[in-house]
Amino acid sequence: MTVQTIDRPVRALLGDWAWQEQAACRDVDPDVFFSPDTERGLRKYAREMLAKSLCGTCPVQAECRAYALAAGETYGVWGGTAERDRT
Question: What pLDDT is stored for residue 10 in this prediction?
């Protein structure tokens, strides 16, 4: 089996990162968006709903979601989508 690597940084794929300056989550604890490995069930669901509700107020939600999809983000809530939403 051959493993491919990306030769260029993800930011080269995405261009401008200025949208992050407008993000509603800029000053929020990242733990709201990323679960510990041991988090399961209702606790994980509640944390994701909190993160998604914050994303719902964000003026750059579409840019964040586009970044997550282009970068292949496999963890966390990005642009109102959880890990399972992006698979």
Answer: 52
